[in-house]
Amino acid sequence: MSSSDVRDVVIIGSGPAGLTAAIYTARASLEPLVIEGEPSSTSDQPGGQLMLTTEVENFPGFPEGIMGPELMMNFRAQAARFGAEIITEKVTRVDFSSRPFGVWIGDPDAAEPTFRSRSIIVSTGAQSLMLGLEDEHRLIGHGVSTCATCDGFFFRDQHIAVVGGGDSAIEEATFLSKFAASVTIIHRRDELRASKIMQDRAFANEKISFMWDSVVTGLQGETSLQGVEVEHLPTGERTVHPFTGLFVAIGHKPNTDLFAGQLDMHPNGYLDTVPGTSRTNVDGVFACGDVQDSTYRQAITAAGSGCMAAIDAERWLEAQHD
């Protein structure tokens, strides 16, 4: 493989982070290649989680709101306009142990990588853990959600439920109580796992009630959520409740399996970056978006970190030529 075949930047993943990185690196004449993932894959959905949402009202610049897929198509078109090459494929293997770095598509056991690049930007995101119900994905964005900050406003004066018992679930429920008529926390145990201060806050909130020792077993509604079936574990009794909103808050899983053993990770699986930068433990490999952010997980923060990764990569490449 000749030096002319080696890319300056390969971006693994898309979403707000990867596509923002593509916009910035393309405008810097680095001719980035974006490997955006496959539509059939839940772990690297092209366009990220916004492709699975409906209306987005909290992304700056859209006072009337915008549909999630439309927003991401705008990101994609803008990156392409400045010269980013985007392919709808899934990365199956990476090699960061030698330079230029290797990236495989298709057979991960192939002797030679599909692409080589001087720098890599990782933006593979994270996925919300779901309940595994038959109608869950069909009703995502139509009553079922994984983000109270994103969707809570749409449930004003409605009776809604939150599944989970950790800090995230309690934080979601507390936030949702600002809008909803009532919020019911459904938890499979008889006590919360959340920190005491979060528990105290929830117990003191008159709008929040609890279904202990219970799990969600079914969802009702054709075009939008109309009811939630709940099983009480000690008795096996199943009842249907007229919730029109269900927020799943049982955790997130970063899409980092591809980088195991090559990039440093936190105990929770998120990629470790140098504070204030997008740099990983491998010189020339950068990470941005939800794959390295277990705190905010918003489109706007992902886009911001994509900008950081692009600038970090550009400056790093410049330094290699000094």
UniProtKB/TrEMBL annotation:
Its EC number is 1.8.1.9. Keywords: Disulfide bond, FAD, Flavoprotein, NADP, Oxidoreductase, Redox-active center. Its cofactor is FAD. InterPro entries: FAD/NAD-bd_sf (IPR036188), FAD/NAD-binding_dom (IPR023753), Ferredoxin-NADP_redctase_2 (IPR050097), Pyr_nucl-diS_OxRdtase_2_AS (IPR008255), Thioredox_Rdtase (IPR005982). Pfam families: Pyr_redox_2 (PF07992). Binds 1 FAD per subunit. GO terms for biological process: removal of superoxide radicals. Residues 8-306 form the FAD/NAD(P)-binding domain. GO terms for molecular function: thioredoxin-disulfide reductase (NADPH) activity. It catalyses: [thioredoxin]-dithiol + NADP(+) = [thioredoxin]-disulfide + NADPH + H(+). One of its GO terms (cellular component) is cytoplasm. It is an enzyme of class 1 (oxidoreductase). Homodimer. NCBIfam families: TRX_reduct. Belongs to the class-II pyridine nucleotide-disulfide oxidoreductase family. This is Thioredoxin reductase. It comes from Actinomarinicola tropica.
